[in-house]
Design brief:
- By secondary structure, the chain is of the alpha+beta class.
- It is built from two helices and six strands, in the order H-E-E-E-E-H-E-E.
- Strands 1-5-6 form a three-stranded antiparallel β-sheet, with no helix packed on it.
- Bound molecules: zinc ion.
- The site of zinc ion has 7 residues, from loops.
């Protein structure tokens, strides 16, 4: 049996990297209040909302389409990542 508490811990994995750009650069916003007073959460696939004071998945912005990530790259959108372990920039996607 899968312990639900364990499952949540797995879901909230600490990030190993963050996108160099702010979440709003990708059209991401808070899914709770719709606001953009946000930043990347310390957890993977999550954002932090300063207004709601929660880690939340957020609205996906470009990550949920309709613009494919490759096309977004062609539009000059950067998906470079900052590796939190090494402090080095990695070129994403
Ligand atoms: Zn919010």
């Amino acid at each position: 049996m899968h312990n639900p508490a364990e499952f949540i811990r797995e879901e909230l994995k600490a990030r190993k990297w963050v996108h160099v750009n702010h979440p709003t650069a990708y059209g991401v916003s808070c899914d709770k209040c719709g606001g953009v007073n946000i930043d990347w959460s310390e957890f993977e696939h999550m954002i932090w909302c300063y207004d709601c004071k929660v880690d939340t998945p957020g609205n996906p912005g470009v990550f949920g389409g309709p613009i494919p990530i490759n096309t977004a790259g062609l539009l000059g959108m950067s998906f470079d990542r900052l590796n939190l372990k090494t402090g080095e920039i990695e070129h994403g996607v």
